[in-house]
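debug: dumping io for the single-chain case to check the tokenizer round-trip. Nothing else runs in this session.
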Amino acid sequence: MDSGEKRLNELGYRQELRREMTLFKTLAISFSTMTLFTGITPLYGSSLLYAGPASLVWGWVVVSFFTWFVGIAMAEICSSFPTTGSLYFWAAHLAGPRWGPLASWCCAWLETIGLIAGIGTQAYAGSQTLQSIILLSTGTNKDGGYFAPKWLFLCIYMGLTVIWAVLNTFALEVIAFIDVISIWWQVIGGLVIVIMLPLVALSRKSGSYVFTHFEMAPESTGISSKPYAVVLSFLVSQYSLYGYDAAAHLTEETKGADKNGPISILTSIGIISVFGWAYILALTFSIQDFNYLYDTTNETAGAFVPAQILYDAFHGRYHNSAGAIVLLFVIWGSFFFGGLSITTSAARVVYALSRDQGIPFSSVWRQVHPKHKVPSNAVWLCAAVCILLGLPILKVNVVFTAITSICTIGWVGGYAVPIFARMVMAEKNFKAGPFYLGKARRPICFIAFLWICYTCSVFLLPTYYPISWDNFNYSPVALGIVLSLIMLWWVLDARKWFKGPVRNIEIPNEKV
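debug: decoded output
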């Protein structure tokens, strides 16, 4: 029997999903969920505007450093609990019988909210990239190019979401194969962009500009406080460096998951940390005119700063935008693969929570496709909710800011619950897996927990001043309402019947 399946049985679950994923395939899906371009590209422009290049460039290094603490803490827990329920399953067992149900409930819903919103962030940013591709393919903003209106933007958003759901309805081998393509797409495409862009650009910024120049734009952002501007400039890095828990969601389908799950988590962080910084440096060195990037009359309508950087580089040297369009398509592919992988993760969490009767109509969402052995109903539930999240695109200008904040707070906030429980639990109650921190676990978990709390807090902050209906970050309101309803449900009803993960194998009492 596979070591991961053996541990799953010890935890009280029978093997229901196909355990066919290799280390490389699991790594591919985890890497695709984090993705090289999808976090940096949509927030690069706003983060650069807050405090200039130095804060943005070094912010990635700082965030990467603290992300390792979170990843190492999660890798140890994943090694001990290789289950599809991952975070909320971990929370239930680590918090103990008294607090386990509440910890599991909070973690499960935070994770579910974060992952479904994560699908929305990929769909929105992918639509934004496609909008720029269409614009540059039909001309430019100055030459009568077609800039997709809001209704078409929403249709693209919905179309991507539906395509990801359709693909996730097939066997996991299909998703794994696509994600193997994804990892090569992003590694090769990333190398091409990182190397080619600075070489093509007619001029390059100096090292002192990229690494030491600090510049605020209070006339555009309304922010005059330097510390506050720096905090906001870090958002692009904090949004980009998570999603590595995707490997944990697939542990019931991965061979040797108690070993390969942690390896996938840490390897994903390492690859993204290096490639992400290189991508930021390539964009920043290639800037031609800082102020022109944000000019609404420029070739890309001031809507997408990376697209303008690519256009300036290729049009400046070759007097056409073909090269920029090709590289934008490479970036768009990253969003496509990322959305596909996040849909896979989200469906697994919804399936696992439904298996434990934690979602209304759980009997519907926990059904597994009889042929493909995937939670197809859970896939379509995630897609439907994601589409609902995107409907305000027609009327509101800050939808991406809100969805990004909801995604990050929910997703990363879900990490905090099991990490905190692991930090405070008695060591004798923990059955270590192959990856074990020993005495180092408490300081590592402590730093990881504080970093998560800080990350969640900054995504609730206003990003522009003075605050108005056009720029209001409504994520605190949206999250406040949703989380209040979830906790009210717990107090009035769920605490009476929700006991956390429900075993489907009867095993003798033992330490798990």
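debug: round-trip ok. The chain has one domain: 25-496.
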